[in-house]
Amino acid sequence: MTAVLEQIQASLVGLRMPHALESLAPVVRRIERGETDALGAIHELLSGELAFRETRRVGVALTTARLNPPKTLDGFDFAFQPSLDRHRVMALAQLDFIDRAEAVHFLGPPGTGKSHLACALGVAAVKAGRSVYRTTLAELVDSLAAAKRADRLGDKLRHYRRTALLIVDEIGYVSIDPKAANLFFQLVNARYEKGAMILTSNKGFAEWGDMFGDPVMATALLDRLLHHATVVRIEGASYRLREHADLIPEHVRANAPIAPPPPPKRRGRPPKTQELS
Ligand code: ADP
Ligand code: MG
C-alpha cells in the first residue's frame, strides 16, 4: 500500500469517518480499473459518509424520541379512513406547525390511526432535524409527579420544554386526578407558544372536565391547547378490527362516535395481547 493511501486512512480515522474508511480500498480499485476518476472517488467517499451519518443520526434520534418502530405516512392507508382529509395530513407533514409552535389534535375512536399519524409526523420531524419526544399522558404525568417528589419539577419541565415537538398520546384512556392534571397544565403552560405538541385522544373536548376531574383546569388546558390548533377528527372503523368487521355492531362500523366502542363479541380463543389504543 502506498504511503499516501496510509495517510488518507489515518486522516479518515482522525476525522472519524468510518464509512469512508471502509469504502476507500474498493474506491481506489475502481480508480485503478478506470471505472471512476479522482473527482468521482472524492464524491463517492464523502457522499457515502454523509448518508451513513444521516442514517445513524436518524436512528439515534428515533430511539431518543421513542418513535421506534417508526410509522410513516406512506404506510398509512388513507383509503381505509375516508373521513380523513389526506391533504390536511400531508400539509401537516410540511411541519410548519412546529415552526409556529402550534398544537395538533387527533381525535377519534380506538384503532383509527391516531397514534400512527402522530408518530409518522414525529418521524418526519426527526428526519427534518427537529427534536421530538413521544409519551403517553399517563407516562408523562407519572414522570412529572416523580420529579415533583424529588423536588426537581422545574428541571423536568425545562427538559420537556426543550423538545421542538412533544407528542402526548392516549389522552382519555385513563382518568387523571386533579393533582396530575395540574402537572400536565404546568407543562402545557411552559410550552405554550414556545413548542409544538401533537395530542391524540379518544375523547371529545367536552369530556376533558370529567377526565381531569376538574372542569376549571380542563378549561384552562383547552384554552391553551386550542389556541392556534389544528383539530383532525377521524370518524371511521378500527384498522385493528378490519378483518373482523362482521363482529362489530353496525353503529360502530359506520360513523363511529368519539367514544370507545363496546368491545366486540369474540369467537374462539381470545387474542394473546390486548392493546388499549
Ligand atoms: P389509535 O391510536 O387511533 O388507537 P393506531 O394508530 O395505534 O390507532 O392504529 C392501530 C394499528 O393499526 C397500528 O398498528 C397502525 O399502524 C395501524 N393502522 C391504523 N390505521 C391505519 C391505516 N389507515 N393504514 C395503515 N395502518 C393503519
Ligand atoms: Mg393510540
Name some characteristics of this structure.
alpha/beta, 12 helices, binds adenosine-5'-diphosphate, binds magnesium ion, 277 residues, elongated
Outline the structure in words.
This protein has 277 residues and is α/β, with parallel strands linked by helices. The chain is built from twelve helices and five strands. Strands 2-3-4-1-5 form a five-stranded parallel β-sheet. It is elongated and about 75 Å long. Bound molecules: adenosine-5'-diphosphate (ADP) and magnesium ion (MG). The site of magnesium ion has 6 residues, from helix 6 and strand 3.
Detail the topology: elements first, then pairings.
Layout: H1 3-14, H2 18-32, H3 38-65, H4 86-92, H5 96-99, E1 103-107, H6 114-127, E2 132-136, H7 137-149, H8 153-162, E3 165-171, H9 178-191, E4 196-201, H10 208-211, H11 215-225, E5 229-233, H12 250-253
Parallel strand pairs: 1-4, 1-5, 2-3, 3-4
The site of magnesium ion has 6 residues, from α6 and β3.
